[in-house]
Each structure stands twice: as C-alpha cells, then as structure tokens.
C-alpha cells in the first residue's frame, strides 16, 4: 500500500491524464466511427498541406543550420555535466543506440522500396521517364533527402535544446525544460504540462506510423519464410507478442535492455550491409552511390527548399512534408532519450555521434540497398518492382534478397533486424514517455527507471494505437496521423531552438559550471 501511494505521488497527473485521455479518445473514435475518423483526418491533412508546407520545410532546413552552429561554434566544447563529468557509455554503444532507436525501423522498410518506387514513378516535376538516368539519380537524391541529413538534424536539434539545460543548468528531465530560457520557472506550470502532454500525444502517432510499417514488414517476413498469411489477425498477434518483449525490456533499465538489443542489431545491420554490397555489384554500387551523393550535395539547397509552387503536383506534400513531420513528432522524445546517453560528452560530440555518424551510415545503407536494387532492376533483369506491385510495399526488402544468393538465410536475418528495430524503438520511446509522466528524475544522468506500472501503461497504449490505425486505414491512416500531429511540433521546434540560442548567449546565467567562462572546458576528459 505504501509503495502504491509513493508511485501516485511521483506521477505528474496533469501530463498523464491529458495525453492519456486524448489518446484514448483518438483510438475510440477510430474504432467506433472509422469513416468519420478518416474524413476528419483527411480534412486536417489537407489543411496542413495547403497552408503550412512552407513552414514545415523551413523548420526542417533550419534544424540543419542550428546543429552545425551548436556543434562547431565555440559552444561545442561545453561538457555536459561539467568539466569533470565522465561518460558512462562508450561511443560505439552510444552510436548503436542512437542509430537503432531513431529511424532504424524506417530504413528497413524504405531502403529498397522508396528508390524502386521513384525510378518507376519519378517526381512529376522532374519530367523523367521511368528507369531513365534522370529517374535513377532523382530517386537516390530524394531518398537521401528523406533519410540522411534531415531526420538526424531534427533529432539532434531537439536533443541539444534540452540536454544542456538538464545537465548544466540542473533543470527537470522534461521536454518543456527546453523552453526554460524563454519562459523561466513558469514553464513548470500549466504551460509546461500542456507542452509535455502535446509531445506525448503527437509521438504516439509517429510511433504508430513506424511500428505499423514494422508490423507489416514482420508479417510479410513470416509469410515468406513460414507461410503465415499477412492479415489483420497476424498483425494483432505480432503487435501483442512484441509489445510484451519491449515492455519487459524497458522496465529492465537502459544498460540491461536496450544496450544489448542495440548492439546485436547494429552488428546485424553491418552484416547484411556488407553481404548486399558484395553480392550485388561492388564496383557498380560504389560508383552509383558516390555519384548520387555528389549530386545530392550539389543540389542540396534546391532539394531541401523546393515546394513545387507552379505545377502543384502534390508530390512534395506526400513525400518531403510527410517525412519531415514524421521526424518532428519523434524529435522531442528522441531528443530526451538521447540525453540519457550524453552525460560527460561535449556538445560537439553530441552532434558528431547523433548526427554525422548516423548520416554516414544512412548514405551507405541507402546507397547499397537502394542503389543495389536499382542496378539489379535495370541491368540484371530483377523483378523487385513487380513483386512490390503484386504484394505490397512491405515486400520490398525480401524481394531484394530474393534476387541474391542465400536468400532464405538473408530473409531470416532481415526479419530479425526488423523485429529488433521494432523492439528498440518502442522500448526507447516507452522509457522516455514514462519518464515524462513523472514529476522529476533524481538521477543526474537521467537513468532512473520509472515505475513498471507506468511503463506497462504506455507500452500498451502504443500497441493499441498501432493496431487500431492499421485496422482502420493501413499505411494511409498512419501517414495522415503523422503529418497532422507534426504541425504543432514544428512550432515547438522553433521555440526550442530559439531557447537554446538564448541559453548559449547567456551562459553566465544558464551554465552552473562555467558561469560564462568557457576556458574551464579546455582540458580533455580522461
């Protein structure tokens, strides 16, 4: 009884009840009146795409500039936790968790699907014929745009906005803490509770999108390998079983659960990456990837800011805006989760490990899987596009391995990777959402574990939301929910970056260790 009372006092009931009630209403609405739910979602989506595409695009681009300034200006040498703080996690483990808890689910699903989709259906404003050189390079450039610099910049920007204030200003472990330099102590009142509740509500839609795609891909893997039909019933079973795994892992603590899973998953990622590189065409893949990366950087500003204002084909909204808002709904809580890994590191290291290192990996992943699938399709008579057309987008990765030796073994490896990515993402978000539901974290490294009952509650809410959205509208419902929820988070991202800038310009007030004297951070950490 005493333990239950203690837990009740620890919970931030404003955040828990507001976000929890909103999500329960959202899920119930979709279950009871799916047609009305779909119409309302489509209306909201049309509104966002008509009036705010420009805003979301600018916010995403601004996050890149913000991260580069934060990491490589004079403020980059600030050590999180003070000049004597010692890192608790080595850099490989840090990179592994940052990689697999961010967009790992997405790169499994889209690594082959998006480039193949784009070579057969190029962006209409490119006026490129299917399978032409223009279509091939356009496909890879836009795939890089969606999956490389932009997502990790958005995540890193959100993390930067809160990590400094938590470790060097000793503020609360909450997303709303990022706004402290703008609002002061008032942010821990009703406004802060509203921000945290909004973030939790929005990210459930983002998680539902990611985990929905993962569920479809896992079901397709079991269908191919074991003959289990991919349908609503198999989706529900998969979600239920994996929910049990990630909930158990999330209550076991950061080092015991997510570290082991992330390390194993990262090793498997490199294994399939090397295998695909060797098995397809090493020289051809290398040449195609280098050329496409070069074109991507050459056209980077145009790709990032082009809004199709004349032809208005709708392609930008369905693709660029969708991906940018998808990352944004994840960003505040991914950023909060990254705080757990950054104690004792400098701000510059935070940018390098969370932005630059994963981006390099993403170039390699999409170059090898995307570029490799294009080469197989164009020059080696592969039928990846046909298999995707016949079966669905969740077939893409398995269709790629079907063209290569040891396809059965590699399909099993791909299935394991997707399952582990599902578990890692859901686990990291369960930990962060659960922490956000508490009044505060006492541990300076942000590693305190919330009560198990809170983790179980949020793990269950995520699972139910995924199942409901898949049942009422499949991937279209998932994408719509993500874009609509991304708009308020885009506005929050602007405020977070402005707040961080203010904190850096007033270090005497916000850095408890330096009081504005950056010279204390000159010495290297042992």
From TrEMBL:
<comment type="similarity">
    <text>Belongs to the BCCT transporter (TC 2.A.15) family.</text>
</comment>
<protein>
    <submittedName>
        <fullName>Glycine betaine transporter</fullName>
    </submittedName>
</protein>
<feature type="transmembrane region" description="Helical">
    <location>
        <begin position="325"/>
        <end position="343"/>
    </location>
</feature>
<feature type="transmembrane region" description="Helical">
    <location>
        <begin position="454"/>
        <end position="474"/>
    </location>
</feature>
<feature type="transmembrane region" description="Helical">
    <location>
        <begin position="232"/>
        <end position="248"/>
    </location>
</feature>
<feature type="transmembrane region" description="Helical">
    <location>
        <begin position="144"/>
        <end position="167"/>
    </location>
</feature>
<feature type="transmembrane region" description="Helical">
    <location>
        <begin position="92"/>
        <end position="112"/>
    </location>
</feature>
<feature type="transmembrane region" description="Helical">
    <location>
        <begin position="260"/>
        <end position="280"/>
    </location>
</feature>
<feature type="transmembrane region" description="Helical">
    <location>
        <begin position="350"/>
        <end position="376"/>
    </location>
</feature>
<feature type="transmembrane region" description="Helical">
    <location>
        <begin position="480"/>
        <end position="501"/>
    </location>
</feature>
<dbReference type="GO" id="GO:0022857">
    <property type="term" value="F:transmembrane transporter activity"/>
</dbReference>
<keyword id="KW-0472">Membrane</keyword>
<keyword id="KW-1133">Transmembrane helix</keyword>
<dbReference type="Pfam" id="PF02028">
    <property type="entry name" value="BCCT"/>
</dbReference>
<keyword id="KW-1003">Cell membrane</keyword>
<feature type="transmembrane region" description="Helical">
    <location>
        <begin position="54"/>
        <end position="72"/>
    </location>
</feature>
<feature type="transmembrane region" description="Helical">
    <location>
        <begin position="187"/>
        <end position="212"/>
    </location>
</feature>
<keyword id="KW-0812">Transmembrane</keyword>
<dbReference type="InterPro" id="IPR000060">
    <property type="entry name" value="BCCT_transptr"/>
</dbReference>
<feature type="transmembrane region" description="Helical">
    <location>
        <begin position="412"/>
        <end position="433"/>
    </location>
</feature>
<keyword id="KW-0813">Transport</keyword>
<dbReference type="GO" id="GO:0005886">
    <property type="term" value="C:plasma membrane"/>
</dbReference>
